Amino acid sequence: MDAIKRIWKRLLLATVLLATGCASVAQIDFNALFGTSSPQKRVENAQLNNQFVQQAEFVHKEVEPILNSRCVVCHACYDAPCQLKMTSSEGIERGASKEKVYQGTRLVAATPNRLFVDAFTPEAWRQRGFYPMLNERNQTPEANTQASVLARMLTLKQMHPLPEDKILDKRFDFSLDRVQQCASLEEMDKYEQSQPFAGMPYGLPALNANEHQVLMHWLEQGAPLPFAPSLAPEFITEITHWEQFLNGDSLKSQLSARYIYEHLFAFHLYFESLNQPNAQPLFFELVRSRTPPGQALDIIASRRPFDDPKVERVYYRFRPYRATIVDKTHIPYALNTSLLHDWLQWFIDADYSVTQLPSYQPSIAANPFEAFIQIPAGARYRFMLNRAQDTIMGFIKGPVCRGQVALNVINDRFWVYFVTPDYMDDTDFRTFYHSQIENLRMPAEEESTALAVTWVKYAAKQGKYMRARNQFLNEKFKNGQHLTIDGLWDGDDSNDNASLTVFRHFDNATVVKGLVGEPPKTAWIIDYALLERIHYLLVAGFDVYGNYGHQLLTRLYMDFLRMEGESNFLTLLPQEERRKQFSDWYQGAGTQLTAFIAGDINTFNQPTGVLYYSDYLKGELYQKLGQKVAKVQPNRYQIENSHLQANSKALLQALGRLKGTQATLLPELTMIMVEPEKAGKAEVFTLVRNSAHRNISSLFNEASNREPAKDDVTLVHGLLGSYPEAFWLVKEQDLPKIVAAVEQMQTEKDYEALLDIAAVRRSDPTFWAFSDKLNQIFFDNHPIESGWLDYNRLQNR
Question: Does residue 590 sit in the same domain as residue 690?
């Protein structure tokens, strides 16, 4: 009898699907065919049901690799299409939403929908407007595929593979702000008719027959989801040790733990002593819980890490990070005995006392200079400086995945140096910062629904701070004293965080250790107050779900912080050269900004203590700064590290000297795989396009400030960046031809011709094979730092 029912259901569905191929679209009654929809609790069942446990090996070994390499590369983070995050079982089970996270025009803050934070069950996500990708009706093989959006998206791709065109036509929209269809099951019949080429993976080659068969078999079986095994005893021991430190009862311990948490909440922590060689470690998140160590976690789901937890006592706990690691959100942070020793020295054993814990009122909690005034500023600065790349990486990889609003406030490439922490041990410096608490307030205290007009208030405070700071420095360095390079941090001759290079790639960015590339147009010198404000503005204080005013305030205030860092750098140049450089950096800037620069930033009038011997003052300063940090310069990205032949490396170095038209024609990030002529492994290089600007003070019309004639590139050995826009696959013996073609480019047609001989386009049948090899090289070479690349920026050229 059951077999007869299944036959009738298939006939009915076939009849309906046939009808949908006609001019009118029929509505399939899925309730009649497969029963009513009800969340299946797959994640929960995976850990309880023996049947799922028996399928675990199949899921982990065959299904998960396909999901990671074919789905996660587009569906991760907040900018995943339709908010479908396929990086975890919980994300797959949550499903998709029609609401956009990145919607910069909203007048009120949106409701946060953070995985693992704001809801934990399929029922809760359905109440928040998420709809299922998997079948949630009767669990039969038939229903599991025909009533599954995921199964139908995969099948649609098999039925309508990519056209045999190297450049895909207008049926494909790859713009980041494209209208997203986000079809639910009930809308799939119409979607399949109107968007036949929109199957998954979208705008990329279809899965091969075996991959498709594996996923369809998995779906037919009810899509059992992968689950993580219990933690091994050695991890529990480490967690107990660190949680004991972070949850001490003294006020000093509680305040220190709060400070540490507010700086590490976005990182992926791992225990260095337990990490296996050449393997990706098990990562953890530091979270706030209502429950103490030893009890089940009860997550405090606040918008920001310093928001009122609404409990008498907060506990800082370790939670395993269960999602697939993707490069764009991955900030690995090693925990080891040396670090714990430093934390004890800076925060617990240091000679200071805590008389009371600070309030969580926004006006206090959003201002670290007031909230943590009892902790010595030197300890706070050393904590951030010790892992400076991670600290800066927080605003690049932390709360956002698409940050043009924040990132069009920085140049495309600049170097970063740091003021020595020894200054923070000076009584005069500590007294000065204490006196500036009111002026150091930031827009984060306005919370997530802010009015942009309050920018005037913070502009005035920043102006007061800069005038007071310049007056303080003028007094501090008079009577023959001068600011010199001695005031910069040299990494204590052992820490390679002493200098950084920041690359901006339009709406995303990368920060790496060391001085990479040719001397840039601008550089920053960061002191404690600047580093702390960058973190509380763009990491701890930024809400991706905030309204237009919140995001605009953040962007406008970051203008001040950039100019402050640049001004610190210029203080090491002669006074006339300072004015000359600022004029060059801010050509055509508005009168209000120009007045601010002249009136507040440039009132430090002490002569430089640096002696110069050439006419190229900035270049000479870069050389002196390079000598200051020479002992801790990493060489990870140098072309010399390549094992290619000497003439090949010379050709690649020539490629890295492109300027003007040839550079402008290139995308922001090109990842190049070179197959050696002689025996050896393929090597990967990244060609970064650096876009030149007359100034970067314009909020909305960035294109009007562009100077394409001054564009250049930086070529590095290895992978750099999370969002590749073009892939090249080059045989070493073909490098002369490829480099010559690049150097001769003048038009878009020339660039297209170059791609014809060098590129693996998104339409290339070999795309996935290339992708697998590229990612595997990344994983093999850098197992701790690596994560899956994101293909949402791949160009169609």
Answer: no
